[in-house]
Amino acid sequence: MANGSFEKRIFTTVLWAILPCYSLAIFLLWSIEVSFYLQALVTIFLSAIVGFSCHHFYYDIKDQFISLANLVEALNVGDFSLRGKAEKGQSGHSDLIRQVNKLADSLTTARYDFKESQLLLAKVIKQIKVAIIACDEQGKITMVNPETELLLGLNESKLRHKTLTDVNLGQLTELTSNSIKKLTLGSRTARWHIFKDGFREQAQQHTLYIFSDLDLLLSQQEQEAWKNLVRVLSHEINNSLAPIISLASTLDKLTARSEIELDDKEDIQSGLKIIRDRATSLKHFLAGYRVLTHLPQAKLQSVDIIPVIEQLVSLLNYPVKLSIPAQVILRVDIAQLEQCLINLLKNAHEASGTNNEIDLLIKDRANQVVIYILDKGPGIQNLDNVFVPLFTTKAQGTGIGLSLCKQIIEGHQGQLNLSNRAEGGCQVEINLPR
């Protein structure tokens, strides 16, 4: 009996409790002198009642345990919709059913909370502007966020089949957390702050890498500092230039009406004209820098940039060789993008000379578009300062062209890079997200 099922053990216990009474009743029935047929009829009737009761008792208990087993099995497989029906009143069985139902309610609430947390985490990972990569014990990529897809130029479905070594990041396994290292992550070479930590998923150890672009952060802070400096200088200098221009004009009129010898009068008026012209020229010069501090937010709209580039090249009439696809749809502020391309093509034309051809190429990738502008000039002598406002190598330059271009591209969540080519000349690389 000890090795039988729980239901059978209960049934056997109940049966041993009934059998003595049943046997005693049958013995007394057959001990008295009554009709044989009455004795047989009563015996059959008692036996039927006992047998039916035992059968009903056994299968009722079995059904209850089967129902409980189904409830627990549903919870085990993640189906929290089933509920048991508990009888009114207090009993061990009813309490057990109620507790199982409460457990199902708690698991349902926990599941919804977990899903909401997952959705929130997914939104944060999707919108955060840092690259995130998760790898398993073999170094195979198991998860990336959209920022990483943009940098590497591949969708997550394709990256899942690759290892860190396949994307030139094999050295990450040797780094410690909170490291700062200069490396190439897809299309961007920069100094990265790398956070590294482990986690477990489905009983397997994984490693999480988070990349923060320190160069981009420093560049944004530098741009903001330059904007503030230009804003203050423009305000202070303009406040000084306005009265100088006004006083020069007033003195010029007073000199014209005064009784001064002609030669002296001409000298004074000539000097005042120089002061007025130089002050006016300086005022116009400062007005150009206001563009850096008052660039409006990009108004993005989906456009085909190919006709725009072709029309722009035709209007500029520079010797430009185009290697571009038939169609490229991007969400851009077309006016700002045109201004950026005009500045970059003008720089390439001035660097290359009149007769040297400029190459403009477009590579259309899964989640980004890369525009290359290649010239045949002498290259850039000081690459570290090309995006610094006021810095220029041109005799008549103002030092705002490249700074403005960088600000425009970063306003489109893209990246602008300049580098010298091995064969000579400069390469401009514009990465724009889809």
From TrEMBL:
It comes from the Bacteria. It is an enzyme of class 2 (transferase). It holds the Pfam family PAS. SMART domains: HATPase_c (SM00387), PAS (SM00091). Residues 232-434 form the Histidine kinase domain. NCBIfam families: sensory_box. This is histidine kinase. GO terms for biological process: phosphorelay signal transduction system; regulation of DNA-templated transcription. Residues 117-164 form the PAS domain. It catalyses: ATP + protein L-histidine = ADP + protein N-phospho-L-histidine. The chain crosses the membrane at residues 12-30, 36-58. InterPro entries: HATPase_C_sf, HATPase_dom, His_kinase_dom, PAS, PAS-like_dom_sf, PAS_fold, Sig_transdc_His_kin-like_C. Its EC number is 2.7.13.3. Keywords: ATP-binding, Kinase, Membrane, Nucleotide-binding, Phosphoprotein, Transferase, Transmembrane, Transmembrane helix, Two-component regulatory system. GO terms for molecular function: ATP binding; protein histidine kinase activity.
